[in-house]
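dumping this here before i forget
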Amino acid sequence: MHEDIVRRWREGVVEGFTWLAQRGAQELALWYVGAVAIRGAGFLAVRGGGIVRKALRQGKEAASGWLRTMLSRVSQSEGRAFERLWAKVQLEGERALTTSERSELRALMARIEKLASTPLDFGEKHGLRKAARAAYKNVHSDLARTMDAFPERYPVHHRRPLEYAHLFPEQDVNASSRLAVVQDFIHERVSRVWTKFRTAQRTATRDEVDAATRIIDSHFESWYHRVEVPRGEQAFIERAEQAALEALRARFPKVN
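structure:
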């Protein structure tokens, strides 16, 4: 997809925009990243600030995923403004932007910069969970039918909880590598472990959250991406929960 966008960006802006317009604003994020890759870090598009620049330099998939997720967090009017302004850049070139439009685009990127380091509210978490489920099924199409048939039984787990997204502002919280489907009774136990950590480390740092994620993953990852876990494995899952708690206590003594 990305290569096709870059090729169209280079060879035929009008044709490419017609093709892109049929796919909506979500794919506009891919085109944006493609243009930045071609034009370099000095391009107007990356002048939102340090977080924006760092995020857009991660590589095509990580960068476009990050931007797509961030665009889902802005208001509808801001999303439409991004689409309108960036479409004009693609159709007519950067120089076609008026002074006010140039300022508007920069202000929007500054808004995204600030939003990336702001804790998610309830509505944003709900929207990102819904988007995560759709993204996960797209990558794991072999599990999609089962997930659709029993949505409550197979939640999509954010390996790093959404409440800590602002500690990692340049990373896409909905990246496929950070998601895993788990059966509901396993998810309950994983969530209990995270609750223990959350209660003990009320002002957790980025490094502490990373450490907790590695510990919890190491004890539960054998049940990630599985939709057929026999209840007979319950004893192993209970032991995994206790082992994860013991490992957390060794690293974070306040965990009870």
